[in-house]
C-alpha cells in the first residue's frame, strides 16, 4: 500500500435528524485528523441517497429518525453499498436499539457522549475490519451473551466445521474482544497472518462479520460465558 493510500482521510457522512446535533458532529469531525466529512443527512432516506452519490467510507448513523430510521437505513446501505461501513452514534444504548442495529450490519456503536478521539478510533477500527464499539457497549454485548439460555454443549475435542487448531484459537480470541493487532501480538504472528486466518475461518463457518463469529463460538461451546 502506498503512503498516499495510508494517509487518505476517511470519507464520512453524518446522519442525524436534529440540526444542532448534526452540525455539531460535523464541526467536531472537521477538527479530527484523518476524517473528511463529505455529506450530512437529516433522515435515513437522505442518508441512503447520499451514500449512493458520494460513496463514503463510513456513515455515522443516528437511530431515531423520521421517514426511514437508522436501522433500516443501515440495512439498505450495507446491502446496496457493502464497501461503506456504518457506525451508530446515538443517545440510546438499550438492547432494543443495540442488537437490531448490529444485525442490520452496523460495525460500530457509540453513544453521543463519545469524544472525538473515541469516534476517530471507531472509524479507524471499522475500516481496518475490526468492530468499533464503545467500552460500555462491549460490556452490554458480553452481558447479553452470558445471560442464561439454552444449555451450552461441552467444548468439542476437535474444532468444528473443519477449523484448524489455529483458526479455532483465533476465533476464541475474537470472542474475547481482541482486535486483529492484539491477536497478532498474543500469537506472535503478523497482522496479515491473522487476517488470513479470519478470512479462512469466516468462510468455513459461514460468518459475515465478527458479531456472527462470536455467536458461533458460543453456540459451538468454544467459549463459555463468564461465571457470575
From TrEMBL:
CDD domains: LuxR_C_like, REC_NarL-like. InterPro entries: CheY-like_superfamily, NreC/VraR/RcsB-like_REC, Sig_transdc_resp-reg_receiver, Tscrpt_reg_LuxR_C, WalR-like. It holds the Pfam family GerE. Residues 11-127 form the Response regulatory domain. Residues 156-221 form the HTH luxR-type domain. Coiled coil: none annotated. The keyword DNA-binding applies. The modification 4-aspartylphosphate is found at residue 62. Keywords: DNA-binding, Phosphoprotein, Transcription, Transcription regulation. The keyword Transcription applies. This is Response regulator transcription factor. It comes from Streptomyces galbus. The lineage of its organism: Bacteria, Bacillati, Actinomycetota, Actinomycetes, Kitasatosporales.
Amino acid at each position: 500500500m502506498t503512503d498516499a493510500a495510508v494517509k487518505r482521510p476517511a470519507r464520512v457522512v453524518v446522519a442525524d435528524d436534529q440540526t444542532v446535533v448534526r452540525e455539531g458532529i460535523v464541526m467536531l469531525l472537521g477538527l479530527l485528523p484523518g476524517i473528511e466529512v463529505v455529506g450530512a443527512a437529516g433522515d435515513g432516506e437522505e442518508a441512503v441517497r447520499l451514500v449512493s452519490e458520494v460513496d463514503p467510507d463510513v456513515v455515522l448513523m443516528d437511530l431515531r429518525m423520521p421517514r426511514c430510521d437508522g436501522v433500516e437505513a443501515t440495512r439498505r446501505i450495507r446491502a446496496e453499498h457493502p464497501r461503506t461501513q456504518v457506525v451508530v452514534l446515538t443517545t440510546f444504548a438499550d438492547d432494543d436499539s443495540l442488537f437490531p442495529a448490529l444485525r442490520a450490519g452496523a460495525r460500530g456503536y457509540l453513544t453521543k457522549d463519545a469524544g472525538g478521539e473515541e469516534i476517530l478510533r471507531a472509524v479507524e477500527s471499522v475500516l481496518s475490519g475490526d468492530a468499533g464499539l464503545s467500552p460500555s457497549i462491549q460490556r452490554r454485548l458480553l452481558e447479553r451473551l452470558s445471560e442464561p439460555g439454552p444449555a451450552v454443549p461441552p467444548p468439542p475435542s476437535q474444532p468444528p466445521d473443519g477449523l484448524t487448531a489455529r483458526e479455532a484459537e483465533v476465533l476464541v480470541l475474537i470472542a474475547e474482544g481482541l482486535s486483529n493487532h492484539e491477536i497478532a501480538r498474543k500469537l506472535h504472528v503478523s497482522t496479515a497472518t491473522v487476517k488470513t486466518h479470519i478470512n479462512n475461518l469466516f468462510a468455513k463457518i459461514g460468518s459475515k462479520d465478527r458479531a456472527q463469529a462470536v455467536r458461533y463460538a458460543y453456540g459451538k461451546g468454544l467459549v463459555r460465558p463468564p461465571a457470575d
